[in-house]
């Protein structure tokens, strides 16, 4: 009963069928679980904590989750990636503000993200939806695929010169939960970088369990 399972259950139920959802843990949600892991009264997200695709998912946007208690909270930057001897590198919604802190890589960051920001919601519709015979933006999907296929480490070292920019991209790619030398890990770096320029990454008030409860 993670986000995909609950979404599938909702879609099947909306089509008129009865649905049974299975969950091995005491509460629903899969990785969207908030627990008292340290002291009584202190709630911690057990797995997923920040949800850029929670607000940008075309499917989630169809659902009246706010009527079921879900409230999104965000701050002025999606990412503050710490550096050893320099200020943290930031991912802001404003592309130019982000690029201004990337030194010699400013134009490279713009070149990487700008084409996808022209039609970002069509891109997310194509990426997050079921496999289809046709897509809304085939040229954009092809461009994404050519870059997404790279290992994140090689992508960052090839296209960026500044350690700050490499760290920012690697931090986004780390959401793949795979070694960054593996193929396709650049995909997550791209997706999360693009999302950061669309909306500030949010958390759910009360923890990720609030998303599962609303679903």
What keywords describe this structure?
6 strands, 215 residues, single chain, mainly alpha, two-stranded antiparallel sheet
Give the arrangement of secondary structure elements.
Elements: H1 3-14, E1 34-35, E2 44-45, H2 52-56, E3 72-73, E4 79-81, E5 89-91, H3 95-99, H4 106-117, H5 120-128, H6 138-148, H7 152-159, H8 163-173, H9 185-196, E6 203-204, H10 209-214
Antiparallel strand pairs: 1-2, 3-6, 4-5
Word description of this protein:
The protein has 215 residues and is mainly alpha-helical. Helices cover 42% and strands 7% of the residues. The strands form three sheets. A two-stranded antiparallel ribbon has the order 1-2. It has a two-stranded antiparallel ribbon with strand order 3-6. α7 packs across α9. The longest helix is centred in the N-terminal third of the chain and has 12 residues. The radius of gyration is 18 Å and the shape is globular. The N and C termini lie close together (10 Å).
């Amino acid at each position: 009963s993670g986000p995909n399972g609950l979404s599938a259950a909702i879609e099947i139920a909306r089509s008129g069928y009865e649905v049974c959802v299975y969950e091995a843990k005491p509460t629903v949600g899969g990785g969207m679980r908030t627990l008292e892991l340290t002291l009584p009264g202190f709630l911690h997200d057990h797995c997923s904590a920040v949800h850029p695709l929670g607000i940008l998912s075309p499917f989630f946007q169809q659902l009246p989750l706010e009527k079921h208690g879900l409230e999104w909270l965000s701050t002025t930057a999606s990412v503050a990636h710490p550096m050893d001897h320099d200020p943290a590198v930031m991912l802001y919604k404003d592309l130019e503000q982000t690029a201004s802190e990337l030194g010699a890589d400013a134009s490279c960051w713009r070149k990487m993200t700008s084409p996808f920001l022209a039609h970002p919601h069509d891109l997310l519709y194509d990426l997050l939806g079921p496999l289809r015979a046709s897509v809304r933006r085939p040229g954009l999907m092809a461009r994404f695929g050519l870059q997404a296929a790279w290992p994140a480490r090689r992508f960052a070292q090839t296209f960026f010169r500044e350690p700050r920019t490499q760290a920012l991209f690697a931090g986004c790619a780390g959401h793949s939960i795979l070694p960054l030398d593996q193929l396709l890990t650049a995909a997550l770096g791209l997706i999360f970088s693009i999302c950061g320029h669309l909306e500030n990454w949010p958390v759910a008030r009360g923890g990720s369990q609030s998303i599962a409860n609303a679903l």
